[in-house]
Specification:
Layout: E1 19-24, E2 34-38, E3 45-46, E4 51-53, E5 62-63, E6 67-68, E7 73-77, H1 78-81, E8 95-103, E9 109-119, E10 127-131, E11 137-141, E12 159-165, E13 182-187, E14 193-194, E15 196-197, E16 200-204, E17 206-209, E18 213-214, E19 220-221, E20 226-230, H2 238-248, E21 256-257, E22 268-276, E23 292-301, E24 316-319, E25 332-335, H3 358-363, H4 388-394, E26 409-413, E27 416-423, E28 429-434, E29 443-448, E30 455-461, E31 471-475
Parallel strand pairs: 20-21
Antiparallel strand pairs: 1-2, 1-10, 2-7, 3-6, 4-5, 4-8, 8-9, 10-11, 12-13, 12-24, 13-20, 14-19, 15-16, 17-18, 17-22, 22-23, 24-25, 26-27, 27-30, 28-29, 28-31
């Protein structure tokens, strides 16, 4: 319909890539709810006629009449979008959504939108846009509120999901050995952490997502302590407890609780760690209701870019840096189980708990006692677009803008594609591809094992479509 027979099709319409970048949704006066937009482009973005809404299906609510400068931010608070008009809206602290839609002078939608849905918020803590190592956008609780400027990065801890044994080797009589599964939680702070609300001690922490478990009352995790949540009842199944301890070499001091409901999916799923917020009070429409705040989540998979060798091999998924963002494949490895103890990559001291080991920070000119700005995990002292954490995980130099994870060249060789990149000694890589730039999942082309020395690697893709375009991505580890 509405084609252009006999003439060239018109070029597709382009829009400034304005993004929802931060949202503050749980406030007490004088603080008010607010939404931040970001223009990442090198040109000013005129968003006159565009809309802001809290409902993807009801787009035409608050209307803009302004521009956002190149690389700039625009913050709109509740005093503007909740004035009591028919199109006003407010943001719920119990979970909501926020979107920006492009529009014209006649109030028609013109095709562009960007936004997020999000869960309950802790009072005074904003959600912010964070891009993972494979380009996924996550909208997660932030270290601090930064409306009007760059986000400070995801809030991590005080308790994290540190290890996941989702597919143990088969046991006799079953191919799905769920009784040897476990989820390990770690207290990454130097203080004891109660896994309940001290003011309402019957309200305890929970696991959600693919499994369901409410932690018992009066449970406190010691500083740098570990807790194993298992798929059997350690208090009433002594035989299974003894077998589990023997399988993983656990001593009698290992803390274990369970069973959780369901089991960990062997192909992948989301695991959530949630804590109780204070109960709602009047004039809330739900007095006594207890919201649960997302503390950590991991959306693992058994396919690239996640480690693919934890499938019934005896290996578990292990967080590489406990203090770094967890819902990112780049921060996980498959390794021999370390249930109830530090993961191999988590043993290096990290005084400022920013996820960057002291020795790496010192070697790269960063301050191991400062987790802020360019010294912290989300700093970028060389301005190459990669954070210090991403440089650490990929083995590149955070002080050299030419040193970052990248494909150096792609060239056609007969009917194949030749991909070249610089591999850092001791690092593993995965080459991913897809045949449409913005459609479909990224698929694994191949894994590249750790090399004894730094040097150029050449990979040939002989299976690409003939006379067609293919897109590639390099991931580490």
């Amino acid at each position: 319909m509405n084609g252009s027979p006999g003439v060239a099709d018109p070029a597709p319409r382009t829009f400034p890539p304005v993004m929802i970048n931060e949202a503050l949704t749980h406030t007490d006066l004088p603080q008010v709810d607010a939404v931040e937009l970001y223009n990442p482009s090198a040109s000013s973005a005129d968003i006159s006629g565009w809309f802001l809404t809290d409902d993807f299906k009801a787009q035409k609510k608050y209307r803009f009449n302004t521009s956002i400068p190149a690389g700039g931010f625009l913050t709109v608070d509740e005093n503007s979008f909740n004035k009591g008009s028919p199109t006003s809206f407010s943001l719920s602290s119990l979970g909501d959504e926020v979107w920006v839609f492009s529009g014209d002078a006649a109030t028609n939608l013109t095709g562009y939108f960007h936004g997020f849905r999000f869960d309950a918020a802790q009072n005074g803590v904003s959600f912010g846009r964070y891009v993972t190592s494979i380009g996924e956008e996550h909208f997660v609780a932030q270290v601090s509120n930064t409306l009007g400027t760059n986000n400070t990065g995801p809030r991590v801890g005080p308790i994290v999901i540190n290890e996941i044994m989702y597919q143990p080797p088969p046991a006799i009589g079953t191919n799905n050995n769920t009784l040897d599964e476990y989820i390990e939680l770690r207290n990454i702070t130097a203080q004891p952490m109660p896994l309940y609300d001290p003011n309402f001690p019957t309200n305890t922490w929970r696991l959600g997502g693919g499994v369901d478990y409410t932690l018992p009352m009066n449970l406190t995790l010691p500083p740098d302590g570990y807790l194993l949540v298992v798929n059997f009842d350690p208090a009433h199944q002594p035989g299974q407890l003894a077998a589990f301890r023997a399988r993983y070499g656990l001593d009698v001091n290992a803390i274990m609780i369970g069973p959780y409901g369901g089991s960990l999916d062997n192909s992948g799923e989301r695991v959530k760690l949630l804590k109780p917020d204070p109960p709602q009070t009047a004039p809330s429409p739900n007095p006594g209701f207890v919201p649960y705040i997302l503390v950590d989540q991991v959306t693992y998979a058994n396919a690239a870019p996640w480690p693919t060798n934890a499938n019934a091999s005896g290996l578990s998924l292990q967080r590489i840096v406990s203090g770094a963002y967890g819902d990112d494949a780049a921060n996980w490895q498959a390794a021999a189980p370390s249930a109830g103890a530090a993961n191999p990559a988590g043993s290096s001291p990290d005084d400022d708990r920013d996820g960057l080991p002291n020795d790496w920070e010192i070697a790269n000119g960063l301050d191991p006692g400062d987790a802020t700005g360019n010294n912290g995990a989300f700093g970028d002292p060389d301005g190459d677009g990669m954070t210090n954490l991403q440089e650490y995980l990929s083995g590149t130099n955070p002080q050299d803008a030419s040193s970052h994870l990248k494909i150096d060249s792609i060239s056609a060789v007969n009917a194949s594609s030749r991909i070249r990149f610089l591999a850092v000694a001791g690092k593993t890589y995965t080459i991913l591809y897809r045949d449409k730039v913005d459609i479909g999942p990224w698929l694994k082309l191949t894994n590249v094992s750790a090399q004894p020395s730094t040097g150029e690697i050449e990979i040939m893709d002989t299976g690409g479509p003939t006379n067609a375009t293919r897109f590639y991505r390099l991931a580490a580890p």
